[in-house]
Specification:
Blueprint (H helix, E strand, L loop, with lengths): L4 H15 L9 H9 L4 H4 L9 E3 L2 E3 L1 H17 L3 H12 L4 H22 L5 H9 L6
Helix pairs in contact: 2-4, 4-5, 4-6, 5-6
Amino acid sequence: MQFDKETQQRILRVAGQRIEGQDVDEIDQRIAHVMDLHPEYEDIWKMGEMAVYPQEIDGKVVNPFVHTVLHVTVDKQIVDENPEFVAETFQRLKNEGAEEHEALHAIIGVYADMYFKNFRRGDTFSNLDYQAELDQLSVSS
């Protein structure tokens, strides 16, 4: 998934389908699942295009659109086992006692930090650095 207008429209379409109780296409089930994991965003999705901007939720400023894209991206890495070390890290964190969503968020945090640092610098994303960072993750950290 990209951080682009097409992805914004897709996420908002899925949000609308969920709100109206419509079936979601199989290809969009991953987006719908992320939305199900984050009921705190439910009212924001009802705002339509305003949902792509940062919002205050539970005293924190978050961007539901960016969070959803990151969630779907890392979830896809795990499901597709591409890169393989992401799925391995996910399983290791769960074996250490992390809940599934907690483990996913830990990996998302690493991915997001690296992605945005590289983007700001104009650098390419390094899977070697990503793997090294994920190797440092533990339930206690």
